[in-house]
Amino acid sequence: MDRAARKKSELLEAAKTVAILVGRNKSEISMDDVYREMLRLGHDVEKLQNASGSVFRCKRTWEFTGNYMKSERVKTHGHILRKWRLK
Questions:
Q1: What is d(CA 68, CA 28) in angstroms, rounded to the nearest whole number?
Q2: Cα(78)–Cα(27) distance, rounded to whole angstroms?
Q3: Alpha-carbon distance 29 to 62, whole Å?
Q4: Separation of alpha carbons 55 and 47, rounded Å
Q5: How far apart are the first and last CA of the chain?
Q6: Structure pTM?
Q7: What are the tens digits of pLDDT across the range 7-53?
Q8: Is residue 82 within 8 Å of residue 68, measured between CB atoms?
Q9: In this structure, what is the dihedral angle of CA atoms 25, 27, 30, 32, given to the nearest 10 degrees?
Q10: Are 69 and 80 in contact (CB under 8 A)?
Q11: Does the pLDDT value for residue 2 go beyond 60?
Q12: Phi, psi of 78, deg, nearest 5
């Protein structure tokens, strides 16, 4: 994950910023929420790939809610996602 994050640092920083913006408006969010908003803003989020696992990595900013969901994105085939909230 670290290597993927380094290679995609600019896009990853954009995803982290989008996550915070989305998180301010919802009680809990997943990577699907970030993905949808990034698409709406015109980012090529598919290029994020494995670096997406680093979006919620900062423990000072995010806390895991204890909830999970199946991804709604077709490409992820129902992959289980954690739900996060801003601290």
A1: 10
A2: 22
A3: 10
A4: 14
A5: 23
A6: 0.85
A7: 568 899 999 999 999 999 999 999 999 999 999 999 998 898 888 88
A8: yes
A9: -40
A10: yes
A11: no
A12: 75, 20
CA distances from 39 to 22, 61, 63, 66, 68 (A): 13, 23, 24, 27, 22
Question: For residue 59, what are its two tokens?
Answer: 């423990």
Question: Residue 30 is which amino acid?
Answer: S
How many residues comprise the chain? Answer: 87
SS3 for the chain is CHHHHHHCHHHHHHHHHHHHHHHCCCCCECHHHHHHHHHHCCCCHHHHHHHHHHCCCCCCCEEEEEEEEECCCHHHCCCEEEEEEEC
